[in-house]
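Pasting as-is:
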Amino acid sequence: MNLRSFLLTVTTVFTVSGLFAQANILNAKSPEEIGVRTAAQRAIDNDKPLEYGYVDDRDILFSKMVWEKIDLDERANFPLYYPIDTNNIGVDRRCLYDVLMKSIKEGRIENIYDDSYFKTKRTLQDIQASLVKVDTTELGIEQLNAGEELSAEYIDRRDITAADIMEYRIKGLWYFDKRQAEMKYRLLGIAPVAPDVNFIDSENPDLVELFWVFFPDAREVLHEAKSFNNKNSSMPFSFDHVLNSRRFSAVIYKEENVQEDRQIKDYVSQNALMQLLESERIKDKIRDFELDMWTY
């Protein structure tokens, strides 16, 4: 009986997981039916982001706030970067930046800020200056000087797109829950980082944080959007799962400290190797706290 129940459970899991790829792809009689879920499929797929458990402040024995960089040039982070060209790909596949921007424009993500401390709230109109550059060509300036109306062909518009995103920066809290007796991580914010739009076509432009999203507010949206699973395309991971389970490669660039939360590069300057080692030292310090709890 136990074996029978186990086999039934496995069969059910694989049947349900198959629905998360392109719905109805094996039963569709025309391309238009691909991705259209039946009522039964929608009932099965009635899921939500896994809710965070309540953590009382008295249960936090130790905590450390850290800021990390997710470099999109690393292969492990490709699911957050691609696809950048969506002209020849299905509407069900979008990169993290496109998901965030679409949700902000539709008003589904409301809590966006100018920095990682979430003090100054911004709107889409407020952040347009960092997303779009509109310039007039020399011929357009001559046209204006001659008293003529500026032609649209003499206006250069440059938008930040998904292809321009170089990295993501995240802010999270590592804490030791004494009730659960384990070290845990809670992601609090995420920011796309791109070259300054005003100097984006120049050599070595400075990278800027476009905006910060308060992560708990975006979980519903990120749970609905799926990233590509290179090992099994029938089971894509939601962006909420990818970020919460830390299925990415990141490097700590700052921790909360007495020197006004200064970055590693501020006290380990012009030495990339030593900066990386300092980042690992901070990570080991957090990890060792949990190990030391069980050392007698």
